[in-house]
Structure prediction request, 305 residues.
Amino acid sequence: MPEPIKNRYDFVFICDVKNGNPNGDPDAGNLPRIDPETGCGIISDVCIKRKIRNYVDLVKGCSIDDPDVDDGELGYKIYVQEGAILNERNEMAYKHHNLPLADKKLPKSVEDQRKVTQFMCENFYDIRTFGAVMTTKRNCGQVRGPVQLCFGESVDPVMPLEMSITRMAATEGKEDKENKTMGRKQYVPYGLYRIEGFVSAPLAERTGFSQADLDLLWEALMNMFENDRSASRGLMTSRKLVVFKHESRLGNAPAEKLFELVHVDRVSSSDQAVRSYADYCVTVDENALPDGVEVSVFDYIAPSA
Prediction:
């Protein structure tokens, strides 16, 4: 079985959007999410996790109907997918180990409880990475994932806008062909977003999160927008990934101190509206790194597939 990672990691991910909606708020008519007090744009952690899941599914191409991995091996199926029936996925663990099904109850023995939870970690990348609450009708326990993300926040305030759009075609023949349907499109002209995250070695040991899993996470962050294009999201681009690696499993410095070493500064005039990545400069103060911490900066990671 691949060994779990032995080091703690903290990271800063920088991405931007141009003329698009990076994360619509259904409670606000799908307008881009913002902090109402500062005007800064928000991208939820759930939104980023969704895109990571989609990328892993695209690269690995593991169907839910593919054979289960052997005990101790790692698979790359995705647990949380559109249209997925989670109870059916949980049942896979019981069938694999020939265990009787009981509504909302774990197996009686501690050993069997560990078996079903371990099965889910080994077969599903997103459970092994982000964790999952699997206490549904087919109970496989709860898993706390080693990878956690904060909300993304734009460096400067963004301006949520709406425009009217029209549909020229009719739905049915009986409709008046001159009756154009009106719609709305929500977007921000430009926003540069900063997202901070953490990778825990002790939690990785519990789920089996390996170095290969970690490399795939970095790859997904830097490529997840490339195959997720839509008119509503405009041009979204992964700009930079700054990874802090600790020598120890519990860490050699507070995450906040490391995040403070990553500076995103305006280089264009403050009187000028920001409209591109060229209006900013991202730097890392490597001279101030604490002992026991090393940093890697990525502008691009080539897809593995």
About this structure: The radius of gyration is 22 Å. Helices lie at 45-60, 86-96, 110-123, 125-130, 201-207, 211-223, 255-259.
